[in-house]
Amino acid sequence: MSYRAPVQDIRFLMDNIAGFGAVAGTELFADATGDTVDAILTEAAKMCENVLAPLQRPGDLHPAVLENGVVRTSPGYAEGYKAIAEGGWIGISADPDFGGMGLPMTLTTAVNDMMSSACLSLQLNPLMSQGQIEALEHHASDEIKALYLPKLISGEWCGTMNLTEPQAGSDVGALRSKAEPNGDGTYAISGQKIYISWGDNDFTENVCHLVLARLPDGVAGTKGISLFMVPKLIPDADGNPGKRNDLKVVSLEHKMGLHGSPTAVMEYSGATGWLIGAEHGGIAAMFTMMNNARLGVGVQGLGAAEGALQHAIAYAQDRKQGKAGGTGSIIEHADVRRMLATMKADVFAARAIALMNAVAIDMTTATNEPKWKARAAFLTPICKAFGTDTGIDVANMGIQVHGGMGFIEETGAAQYARDVRVTAIYEGTNGIQAMDLVARKLMDGGEAAFALLEEIQETTDATKKKFPNLAESVWQAIENLRETTEWLVSQDDLTDRFAGAVPYLRAFARVLGGHAHLQAAVSGDAARERLARFYINRLLPEHASLLAHTREGSADLMAITPDDFAA
Amino acid sequence: MSYRAPVQDIRFLMDNIAGFGAVAGTELFADATGDTVDAILTEAAKMCENVLAPLQRPGDLHPAVLENGVVRTSPGYAEGYKAIAEGGWIGISADPDFGGMGLPMTLTTAVNDMMSSACLSLQLNPLMSQGQIEALEHHASDEIKALYLPKLISGEWCGTMNLTEPQAGSDVGALRSKAEPNGDGTYAISGQKIYISWGDNDFTENVCHLVLARLPDGVAGTKGISLFMVPKLIPDADGNPGKRNDLKVVSLEHKMGLHGSPTAVMEYSGATGWLIGAEHGGIAAMFTMMNNARLGVGVQGLGAAEGALQHAIAYAQDRKQGKAGGTGSIIEHADVRRMLATMKADVFAARAIALMNAVAIDMTTATNEPKWKARAAFLTPICKAFGTDTGIDVANMGIQVHGGMGFIEETGAAQYARDVRVTAIYEGTNGIQAMDLVARKLMDGGEAAFALLEEIQETTDATKKKFPNLAESVWQAIENLRETTEWLVSQDDLTDRFAGAVPYLRAFARVLGGHAHLQAAVSGDAARERLARFYINRLLPEHASLLAHTREGSADLMAITPDDFAA
């Protein structure tokens, strides 16, 4: 069962829905010509299809293990990583001064999408490095940049993010790790960190940990937290990895999926660290990185969904069963067709949102316009949560398409579901994303939301002649969403927003998906029009029940007491 | 993390929603007094909590294995099985003439619910036996009954169902296994069967396989299939297991979950079999068994959901994170409360439907009234599909409540999701259930459906004074469902029914859940009223978008070509 990168779909969405033309039209991204985009997508597609996809199952069967303090990675992962690094795929959007390609985040997003479909557990490694590269570009000193960025961008070294501690998960402000000044400009970092993705490996020369810790004068909560670079091997004067730092992998987790990715408990015992950004400014630095990492994780979700979709399509086209007409395969059965169409339509919607998000980030970088910045910030939680929920739902439906075979591990369908499950949890659970959306991202009084809704309503108006019914459905859905957004903005008690935050986020994604599908129908491609009809007539109506849930507020929910659950 | 059997919830639903009083009022089930019911539920609860629940994780960690042709089961399973057998829990509803208790299926359902929460993979074994006992009671000769039923009911022997072959899954009529008359009244059975749950074990004296095969003069398709009893060890004249039959376990599957349950590929090489029922009447005999097995599998789904719910509640009550008010635990966060309330409300709805289904079966058995028979047949696919979908959804949400811990296997949350996944597939996929509902179960012109809707609408009317808003919502939802049911019945092209079958089934379950919650609110229990408000105001609205999907028919869906998926 082989993966084929959906280069055409991605290119179509970039050009026709996400508005990549505007990005390519900026001075900063003038190099992102059509030819360059083609070359990037085509080359990355080859690597994903030929090198990464064959590593998907071996990583599941032969998890990374900790042996005598050393992490041994899954068979073939070292070679797979080398292909990613040598292709330049880690630093597509990184600073050219340090070896990056300086190309738009939209292209990074497209390539991450493909890599996620091909081998999610390995792709998580460069995704972490990309986040670290961005954090260093924005917050590190020139010295640190000069030392670390070339190595991270080339892939010789890789990066991790160390936030979580046993008592500090979603509430990162509760962390206890300490940083004591050594008097020479460095710090001694101590503490335990958990859930460290790719906490170690046996194929990069060094592993660079970005660690959140509290200085002696750091206040309690998030405002007293600082960020430190804590390398596994301390670079010598020439930048070569030298002395072993005082840190170690204590254990690796046994996880539901993503077995190829070693998830470590890390122990720092006075390890030498370098401050990144300002003292007590760790959270701000982390947020820079986190916003784009959230886009990256949303893309993991939709990438895994694409993999599961292709896997299910191949099975449904091949499998004969029952009195199916046409090709005689189960794809002719209405219910199988319904499942595959749902999967395909939702992957399309999630990818559209991710690329819209990436374009907004690129436009922010290129123009520094507040409008784009607000757009990017607003779309990020939607992209993360809907992308990963779609990953879970599509992978789950993919199992169902396989019937009994779906439950058998050899088939590979179940692995997509097990692997992708964590994406709805890490990098901020999807509940946290939704709370971010209805609180922080509506703090502008809904300005960013209403601007986006107005824009897509206008593009909907323009389609009314060609597709009156479809356009009317999308237009009305946008209107319903606007009304509920107005209601949300007027709720002063945040609990009233939080109670319906998850349904609201999903409704917003549903409506954006309606917009994307409608625009796809307008493009004149008959297949895209058929899928758009399916989505708009059958899946979009869900937004109404989600908005009804949202507008219930919190009173009835919070009236349910903890004791009510004790029965 | 310990399981506590929800005896009160089950009893409440039996008495107040499912109408168990009518069953206990029949002559046949006069023994099912309140005291008897209490005793059964209390004793079974103890066994589930103390004996079965501790086997849940060992079964996952130490799957059943095939060694030199012998299946070795998971640690503790032999003792667990013994407790089930000795408690009499296999034969609660079996014929007292052969050692059963002769009690209503409603009680079997309640006990299966608890056993499924405690240890799904082991519970699957007696569930298979229960189906076999029922098939033999209805279709076997007196000799076979006398020989097999006492052993199956006591649990000394256990039973399996052998339908599926590699080319014959949902399309059972495509099977190729053969039965040749031996001339002495027995048959030589040959063929390969796959996905045989509990195909062998090391704790029962014998394993009795019910095998579908084709006689030499059997026509192609389902009408040429016969059913045979093919024991692992052929009983001697005294009924003791004797000579090894010509059958073997070829291999066990590596599955996503349910590791404690050995799923076998079985090879029959001229094994001796005895005809059950009429020649070429195998499908009819299988259907008797399958209808109740489908109820049983729906109950597995909701039982697993109950287990996952309790697991998540315990975590949420214990875990401190962020600025939570009240108890300081994450259960105080609105989004966590929303997840737990959704889980609890849906388990309640699924359990209500299962018990309504069981009551209809019992009333059929006791009264032989066509009305009850039609009710039971109608509810069965809804119970199976909604129960198992709820199992998957609730277990998935249970992982999310655990945050990062949910993805770590030691926590146990992931196992519920992995184990329960197959329940939406086996015993007829949920797609097959939905097609059964909209085709066969509406073949009466909707009579059974409309009778049920009328009944619940009347009970809704009676609540309008006390809860005008809730009652109005439920009443309107029933009305919407009736309209779509009328539309479905009027579709002559079955494809137009099949295209929306899955959303329709779910909408029906949503509405039945609304009915159950409304009745629970009326009972005067404040906690139940709070949960009912949550369900009716926030979850019930989903029915509208599902019905919209249903009424789209098939044209637009089937217009999507197989080639459209090739991109």
Automatic annotation (TrEMBL), chains A, B:
UniProt cross-references to SUPFAM superfamilies, sorted A to Z: Acyl-CoA dehydrogenase C-terminal domain-like (SSF47203), Acyl-CoA dehydrogenase NM domain-like (SSF56645)
Domain Acetyl-CoA dehydrogenase-like C-terminal as annotated: residue spans: 452-560
Broad class of enzyme this protein falls into: oxidoreductase
Coiled-coil intervals, chain numbering: none
Chain ranges of the Acyl-CoA dehydrogenase/oxidase N-terminal domain: 78-156
Residue span, Acyl-CoA oxidase/dehydrogenase middle domain: 161-268
Keyword Oxidoreductase attributed: yes
Keyword Heme among record annotations: no
Catalytic reaction(s) noted: 3-(methylsulfanyl)propanoyl-CoA + oxidized [electron-transfer flavoprotein] + H(+) = 3-(methylsulfanyl)acryloyl-CoA + reduced [electron-transfer flavoprotein]
Any one Gene Ontology molecular-function term assigned to this protein's record: flavin adenine dinucleotide binding
Residue ranges occupied by any Acyl-CoA dehydrogenase/oxidase C-terminal domain in the UniProt entry: 281-440
Family classification: Belongs to the acyl-CoA dehydrogenase family.
Name recorded for this polypeptide: 3-methylmercaptopropionyl-CoA dehydrogenase
